[in-house]
Amino acid sequence: MSSVSLRSVVCLIDRFPALTDVNLEVSEGEVVLLSGGNGAGKTTLLRLIAGLVPAFSGEVIVLGKNLRINCRAHRDEVALVAHETGCYDELTVRENLYFFTRSRSQPTSVADDALDQLGLGRLADTLHGKLSAGQRRRLSIAKALAVSPRLLLLDEPHAGLDADGREILDEVLRDAAAKGRTVILASHEIDRSRALADREIELQSGKTLPVPAGETEPVKPVEA
User: Fold this and answer.
1) How confident is the model over 58-105, as pLDDT tens digits?
2) What is the assigned CATH class of domain 29-51+74-211?
3) Which of 50, 70, 82 shows the shortest CA–CA distance to 149?
4) CA 8/CA 130 separation, integer angstroms
5) 71 to each of 22, 30, 49, 52, 59, how far by Cα in Å?
6) How far apart are CA 103 and CA 147, in angstroms?
7) Are 113 and 179 in contact (CB under 8 A)?
8) Which of 104, 151, 161, 218 is most open to solvent, judged by the fewest CB atoms within 10 Å of its CB?
9) Which are the contacts of 119, defined by CB distance < 8 A and separation ≥ 6?
10) C-alpha distances in angstroms, 82 versus 115, 168, 187, 218?
């Protein structure tokens, strides 16, 4: 079963073609790495799949929902770990997670489990505004896990994490895969992320190019 199906997708950001020809099929339970240089379109692609930016043209089916018709139809089944946590500085770590899980009709026990999984238990009563960059990144990942998503999207998830945090994140991603969740991550930590992923897709100038297993370079399109 396909979790994500994108065909001939074009996405414009302020009239700029951020995605120009995206074709992507991701099966349920698959872990896919998005690679590519800065400005290649990785963040835009994740936001498109999350329903945060619309497609200008093409087909966008995520978790069986047509996002060209309703970009929020899959909202309760997807979580995006972005550069910003989306948390409130005046609330504690625990309060932020509880607020988010309740907004998604999830029990607070799920938030407690996510706190423990990310090693944030000792910081549960610390204000978000007092957290370091790495601690905020852990909280952002915990927030995503707390909604038990079918589809987990991560944009540079290793950024800002110390060695322990990176090991914890790797274990979180392995656990998500073991539970059958679909994971799509964009990362410059290529070697580390390749070890976690089932396959790799490279973006170049807004286009998707598959990277064959065991290779480090994408398949280049054949010129006519």
Assistant:
1) 999 999 999 999 988 898 899 999 988 889 999 999 999 999 898 888
2) alpha beta
3) 50
4) 44
5) 17, 22, 9, 7, 12
6) 10
7) no
8) 104
9) 138, 164, 165, 168
10) 18, 18, 12, 25
d(CA 179, CA 158) in angstroms, rounded, equals 21
Q: Angle 133-145/108-117 helices, nearest 10 degrees? A: 140
Answer for the pair 103, 95: CB distance below 8 angstroms, yes or no: no
This prediction's pTM: 0.91
The DSSP code for 92 is B
Average pLDDT, the chain: 90
Distance between CA atoms of residues 179 and 202, nearest Å: 26
- Cβ atoms of 145 and 172 within 8 Å: the answer is yes
In whole angstroms, give the CA distance from residue 166 to residue 210.
26
Report residue 97 as tokens.
């997670």
Dist CA 220 CA 222 (whole Å): 6
- Decide if 24 contacts 34 (C-beta within 8 A): no
Kindly tell me the burial class for residue 16, based on how many C-beta atoms sit within 10 Å of its own C-beta (0-12, 13-18, 19 or more). exposed
Dihedral sign computed on CA atoms, order 97, 98, 99, 101: positive
pLDDT at residue number 218: 56
Helix axes 163-178, 133-145, angle to 10 degrees: 10
Query: Which residue type occupies 63?
Result: L
